[in-house]
Amino acid sequence: MMWIDPKGMMYGCEPLLEMLRTKMPWGDVFFQDFIFSGFALLVVIGFSQLAAAYLLFKKHPLAPKAAFTSGIILLLWIALEWWVFGFNAMSNIFFVMGLLEVINSFGGWCAGSK
Hints:
The protein is 74% helix and 0% strand. The protein is mainly alpha-helical.
């Protein structure tokens, strides 16, 4: 969505851009459209989750730590979304998913250290 329609007009997301501009530092610079936020979402959330998944599939010893870290990153991202946009169903669902990721990976981390 953020790459196809950078201004968000197709999905009625123009008000979200205004919220980003007013609440985020350098909002007028980085949030002229959704390109920066889409790229940041891809890099911060997407790549950290992908790296954790890769390590988990390879059964690497650092996999639980990577999953824990990517879960914490997701929780922080959602907390930032709550601050900017307020509570909404999608953010709440992803917060629960991040919390479950943190809890499960912490369990794997502790089990692996015995």
